[in-house]
Each structure stands twice: as C-alpha cells, then as structure tokens.
Amino acid sequence: MIAYLLRRLLWAIPILLGVNLLLFALFFIVNTPEDMARAHLGVKRVSAESIARWKSERGYDKPLFINTAAQGSKRLTDTIFFDKSVRMFALDFGQSDEGRNINHELGTRMWPSLALAVPSFLLGLAIAISVALLLALARYTAFDALTTVACVVMMSISGLFYIIAGQFIFSKLLAWVPISGYQPGLDAVRFLILPVVIGVMAGIGSSVRWYRAIFLEEMGKDYVRTARAKGLSELRVLFGHVLKNGMIPILTGVVVVIPTLFLGSLISESFFGIPGLGSFTIDAIQSQDFAIVRAMVFIGALLYIVGLILTDISYTLVDPRVRLQ
What we know:
With 325 residues, the chain is mainly α.
C-alpha cells in the first residue's frame, strides 16, 4: 500500500510543475506585463511612463528568468519567474495587483466559504445516499419511477433558477431569511440557511440518480444473490453488503470534491453576498487582478491533486485489492 501511495505522490509533482509553468507562460509570455498594465489601467491611450510605473510598483519590470544586472543568486531570484511562480510552491502569493496581501485574504475568506460549502456537501451527500438506497430497496415500483422522474427534472433546472426563486420566495415574499449578506459567528447561520438548502437542491437530482445506478448494479451481482440464498433479509443485504461495496465508486466522486470546498462556490457566494473565496475570484476577474487569478488557479490545481491522493488513500481503506499493489 505504501508503494502504491508513493507512486501517486510522485506523479503529483510533475503535474503541479506543469500547471505552474503553464500559468507563467499564459500570464507573462502570451499575456505580457505590458498587456496586463494596459488592461488594468483601462484607457486606450496610456503613456509609456504610466505603464512603466504600474509594472515597477508590482514587480513586473524585472527580467523573466535571468537577471543579468544582478550578482550571485539574485541573478535567478530577482526575476519575475522566482517572485511570481517559484514562491507559489511555498504558498507565498505576495501582493495583488491592487496592493492587497493575497495570503491574508485567503486566510480570511476561507472560513465563509467553508461555512457554506461543508454543510451543503455533508447534507447533500447524506440525503442523496439515503434516497438512493430507498429507491434501490423499492426498485421498479411506482415510487421509484416517480422519484427518478423528479430527479431528472431537478437536474434539468439551472442552479440560477433555484437561487433566484429561493431569494424571491423565502427572502422577499416570506421574509424568513436575509436575501444576501454575511456576518461572522453564530449570526452567520441565518445568512447561510438559504444558500445551503439551495446548494443541496441543485445537486441532489444528479447525485441520487448516480448512486441509485451504483446500488442497482451491485444488487445484481453474485455475492448479493448468495447473501439472499443464505436467508439474509433485504435490509441486511442492502446495508451490510450493497452499501459497503457501492461506496468504492462513490468515493471517486466524493473524496476528490472535498479539497475544492476551500475554494467556495462562485455563483452562490456572488448572488448571496458571502465574502468567500468564490466571490473573491469573481471580483478579481472583473477587476482584472491577474495576481489573484494566478493564485486561485494554482490553489485549485493543488487542491485537485490533493483530492486525487485522498481518493487513492480511501481506495486502500475500502478495497483490499488495492493494498496488494
């Protein structure tokens, strides 16, 4: 098992290096610092002095890879590549193009994102698995058919519809919860109830259909027929055998999502005014703050790799065959 996990960890290194190099190429070779200055200054006829000042204030006036004017190690460290790319591996993202400390913003905005994403994730997972098990138990009945149709309908509706309808009904008409905003501490609960419920509803349809298909496939296998032949009840077969073996493919889609919870939800945070990492990214794109965009893309890639590694670890816990590799 250790050798299996080490192979996965070693594969993660070149992937992260490739993402970092691709980011550098996109933001500093394809899209040069001068292009970023013109886009950020937002004027058609900007003077060369204004561009030079903007680049100097943000460290974009340095050489890309090698600083021939410096001495010693500074020939490599006093460059754009070291400041803007290499430092990312130490999770040092520096200053944004607007002068904000990116690490401070990440540490502050991470908690509202988690407060929204974690309850939505856990509640949605528990409901989806429970409903899927119930449908597997009542398979091919009228209840199964009606619930499956309802799941398809829920899948076909855009997440924006749930947000707009929820805000209109529960915030504007009924005035049960605030339409948007956020406060830290326990006061955050009343601001998070509606986005959490909407987040669960928006994803429940596809999750239930997927988990139902997994459980039905397991119920048709030989070990289930053997368990039934031994006299085990349908509930005991379902929870003691089908659920355990069905969790192996479910972990593929579930565990890999866990690290991305830190990044928050782009749409929900923007519509509900939650100051998390999702709205932070949207605001950076709108204001053309390229430093924040680079940092968020790199963090997203890093968290996705962490998710894949966690998936591999979870495989070793639930599938004995993987431990032998």
